[in-house]
Amino acid sequence: MATASVLSVLFLLVALAAGQSGLTGGASRINPNDPELRSILNNAVAAQNSQSNDEPIRVLAIQRATSQVVSGTLYAVDYIASGQRSGRILRCHSEILDQPWTNPQPKIVKHRCN
Hints:
Number of domains: 1
Structural class: alpha+beta
Strand content: 35-45%
Helix content: 25-40%
Mean pLDDT: 84
CATH architecture: Roll
Radius of gyration: 19 Å
Order of helices and strands: HEHEEEE
Shape: globular
CATH class: Alpha Beta
């Protein structure tokens, strides 16, 4: 009986610790001011601009970002951008797959601005 109680307490502590750090394999919040994140987003947006007929955009500020380890790293980023021709301010969301062993690198897998 005592062993079951000890195991229950240990299980609870592990569950609480996992809850504080996020699920293993799940998305985790990252610092939106991280220079590496900014570089990855700028490179992905530049690639998107060159492949799209939409007005090119420029990243102004990153509001929120998460990363998730998949086959590489998947970043989900909410940011403010401006249209390079119109100057319109846009709220954007992009999901970027960073796989250092592939080319082009990184690549936007989802993108929307409104």
